[in-house]
Amino acid sequence: MIMKVNSVFTCPLMSCILVAVLSLVTVAVAVPSPADEASTVSPPSEPKPAPAATQPDPADPRVVLQERVTVVGSLESLSEIPGAAQLLTGEQLERRRQGFDDIHRMLRPIPGLNIQEEDGFGHRPNVGMRGSGTDRSSKITLMEDGVLIAPAPYSAPAAYYFPLSGRMEAIEVRKGSSQIKYGPNTVGGALNLVSTSVPSAFRLRAKAEAGQHGSAKLHAHAGDAGERLGWLLETYQGGSSGFKELDGGGDTGFRLQDYVGKVRFNSRRGARVYQQVELKLGATEEDSDETYLGLTEGDFRSDPLRRYPASQLDVFEASHRQAQLRHFVAFSPRLDVTTTVWHNGFERRWYKLESVLGQGLASVLERPDDFPTHYAVLTGADSDPNALVIRNNNRSYYSRGAETILGLKAGLGPTRHEVEVGVRYLEDEEDRFQQDDAYQMLGGRMALTRPGAPGSQTNQVVSAGAWAFFAQDHVRWGRLTLVPGFRVEAIDLRRVDYARTDPDRTAPTQVLDDTVDVFVPGIGASLRVGDATDVVAGLHKGFAPPGPGANTATRPEESLNYELGLRARRGSFRGELTGFYNDYENLLGRDTLATGGSGTGDLFNGGAVRILGLEAGLSGDLGRAFGLALSVPLQASYTFTDGEFRNSFQSRYGPWGTVDAGDELPYLPRHQLFSSLGLGDDRWLVNLGASWVSAMRTEAGHGPLVVEESTDSALVLDLLAEAAVASRLRVYGSLQNLTDRRYVVARQPAGARPGLPRTLMVGVRLQIGS
Predict the structure, then answer these.
(1) What phi, psi does 164 have (nearest 5°)?
(2) Is residue 599 part of a domain?
(3) What is the rounded (10 degree) CA torsion for 500, 504, 507, 510?
(4) Is 5 contained in some domain?
(5) Closest CA to 205 of 165, 168, 164, 163
(6) What is the C-alpha separation between 350 and 242, in angstroms, rounded?
(7) Residues whose CB falls within 8 Å of the CB of residue 325, separated by 6 or more in sequence, listed in order
(8) Residue 220's domain spans which residues?
(9) Which of 40, 16, 36 is closest to 28 using CA atoms?
């Protein structure tokens, strides 16, 4: 485990990264550039269309494989998708992932996404789509390289593990009817993170950064390929002592280590039957001094970066392992089969404050005047023994499965068909073996007074086994494209409870089994109305499975979703405008600690809900459009979302509570706006990004927003500048939250929580090879 740090000079990781910076400079200056290489490295800017001779060949087996395992594939593929889809390329990501590589910041340019920040670093992402709900990204289909990556996608989908976005070469999003291929969740959409690919020739990339809050990172990968064999090795190392200030001192940051290796074997390019096998192995370790304990409203306005002494022992420790084997065979340009098998294992132990003097933390922080003694203990006052309870949220997960996709291309009269049929079997499990330990506060420090027995708080195993089938046909008929399709989910769910006094699990106290079968149809359409303008429309069924152990009154989450949009291209510019309407028959809420609940995982019906909205996006290069010598990349997006309950009810789910018909959904901002503008050439680049999110409710309600029950609206500016200092070396700096905006990003699980303050990072990037 990496040592905790207090400054960039006292941490072994930070020292290694500083040494790496000097090494990169030495390598870049000492190694002469080959004559056939460009004298400079292109800056991260909007990619220019390749000449026609270099456009991807749709009959190339490698291009076909990309279509099978990615959600979008390439910028050229966007025009072929009859529905809302977005792609963030590597060039675009470089402008967004400086500093802590926060996935929330990377996703801001994509319209239609709902994002709830939490820790300022983005390590526990909360991402939803079109009002689906953001809690731990549990309502979207989350994938890495086309494989479900949530710890237990069916039985416990809350993504306490999220792939490190800093090592991704692309991020893909599909919403609406075009994403039913990627279930089980189809209420919102699919998010696929594309990891670094095996290169076609030797390539070395490395970058190192250091900056404020004792922060630093190193990301490097190297790979090569011949005619039959390719490989890649990659690592990502990062750490920070944290931007929050713990009363009495202590770290509030994190340490990360991530490793990925890939090896690929393939037939020669001209083989009659082309085959390719790729093995991917990965490992991630995390140690974060993170807490669920926020601040009272008064304390936040006084010092938003403060942390109370009662959170001094809170720590999140996690370990993730992944293995993936994929085989692809193209029997002909018309017929191919892709088979993937995988195993993901995840263990985490989040040791964090649960209660004070028997009272839940949220209640104390919402009404500190009603709990003066409780508040005093949280802020460091001496207490009796056992006054503070810390829960050891000790959980382990696995997800393993196999999937086969058959692709068939055929012509039938005036129509061309691209049929995909797939079958997947997946089984997953979450094992909870938790305990509560009690502490006493003395002199501002916490001392253990009553250790809990392992399993004495929760002793439970939930699991799922699921068969999924999908079929869709991409039909082209002149200017019209239709994509009808469906998926079938057959899910077996099980929950096994053991007595809290039975750590050896000799006999269960309760076994609950449930079966969910669902048919999810959808159809998308695209009509070319000009040389580069498309009208797109879609209709599909939304579905999200319930978890194991749901009571008989709990219903699956189901909706009927509509979309209509316009997509256009002119030169380097791409624009889109899409309206959507989601009509929920039943919305589900899940009791988790992250939502301020007790963490039981119980499900609650929300009944009928209506969500409608508008998404708009524009990107291009103003420099190219006006014939300038400089590149001026521009990107902008806007999202309007309105969601309300259409029935009245009383719920034990915290964010809902007492609901009246017409109440607005919590954590759903009405307005979101993003824009970025750059200026540069092959030698230098400056880019300014701005994101604005309107205030949103933290509890269901209507009428004017109440400060204590809402987040703050916030305009956050990020600045990036970089320059080439050698043929292979660039230096750069980033300033996140340029104006040092202090704002409430959430009031759950307990109290007000701040966004990242102004943070300066500087680094170097080395690039060798193709």
Answers:
(1) -70, 115
(2) yes
(3) 40
(4) no
(5) 168
(6) 17
(7) 277, 278, 279, 280, 340, 341, 342
(8) 12-31+85-769
(9) 40
Q: What's the rounded mean pLDDT across residues 386-395?
A: 97
Residues 370-376: contacts with CB under 8 Å, at least 24 apart: 375/296
- What is the number of domains present in the chain? 1
Classify residue 241 by its DSSP letter.
-
Residue 43 lies in a domain: no
Lowest-pLDDT range, 78-92, 437-451, 525-539, 714-728? 78-92
How many other C-beta atoms lie within 10 A of the C-beta of residue 49?
13
Tokens at residue 460, please? 């439970």
CA dist., res. 83 & res. 124, Å (int) = 29
Q: Kindly tell me the sign of the dihedral angle through the C-alpha atoms of 759, 256, 721, 72.
A: negative
Q: Tell me if the pTM is above 0.70.
A: yes
Q: How many whole angstroms separate alpha carbon 469 and alpha carbon 405?
A: 10
> Residue 346: pLDDT above 60?
yes
CATH of the domain at 672: 2.40.170.20
Residue type, 167: R
The amino acid at 286: E
Backbone angles phi, psi at 300, to 5 degrees: -65, -45
Enter the tokens of residue 552. 């008989």
Cα 675 from Cα 717, distance rounded (Å): 10
Buried b (16+ CB within 10 A) or exposed e, 339-367: ebebebbbbbbbbbbbbbbeebbbbbbbe
Does some domain include residue 513? yes
Assess contact for 108 and 674: CB atoms under 8 A.
Answer: yes
pLDDT surpasses 80 at 598: no
Q: Using H for helix, E for strand and C for coil, what is the string for 592-614?
A: CHHHCCCCCCCEEECCCEEEEEE
